[in-house]
Amino acid sequence: MCMLLKRAENQSTCSLISLFYSKRFKRILPLYLLVILYSIISLYCFFPDTAVENNQKSAVHALLFVSNRPKTNEENYFEMLSIGVDIFTHTWSLSVEIQFYFLVPFIFLVSTIIPEKFKYFYYGIVGSISFIYYSSSLSIVAFNSVFARIWQFVIGMIVYLLANTEAPEPSYQKLNVEELNETVKLLEEGVTEEVSESSVQKRIPVKLISYVLPSLLILITAFPFNLTSVVTRPFVTIATGILMLISEDNVILSNRFLTYIGDISYSLYLIHWPIYAYWKLTCEGDKY
Q: Among 128, 99, 157, which residue's Cα sits nearest to residue 234?
């Protein structure tokens, strides 16, 4: 998302916005609409009649990307999760994402007129306002509202900017013969060993973080008691951002299997819930 905006940064405002939306929607919409089509066909062909009426309404909400709208008592998200009758329940998160896409170009355009050294401060302010709204809202609003989720998207944008910060171009000057000889002498005396030791010391914390953070994330997921979302959600978001930042060339985080799971995660996200809902409705949740 931020990558697309940065690539079009030097183009006109209209070109930037149109390029951003065309790229994002080309990636998201084809598979999304295909899954909804197959889900609706399956709804009429294979699902019990009792599931049809509710899912007709949910399909419309999914197509309009408003699945995250406030639910009635009958439609409550957590109730849908527990009984598995709404095959489009999971589209709430994509609805939040699409709604954010209508905001992010303008958030980004404002950042382009801000001096480079103040950009992180600007994104920090935007994220802080969103987080204050999130932490002060009712749980149902904090969960579904795009404005209560902006801070999470902003963290992702900051991670991208940090990972792609261009180092200042080094300045060069010609060495005379004496300076060149002195440089060679220093190298021969083992300066390279000190550099090597320094680079190893820098890699050790990164490797430690790559072990500790995933372990903590797994621990939070498997924790037997409810933890307050005001603490866990920021921690998980920031921890994920840090892992993304240090993932390049990391043996664990750049593992081919994990990378493959990441590549297909969008497809898994789209198809997993309709399959589960069908199993829950037809098998009444019985375990084999």
A: 128
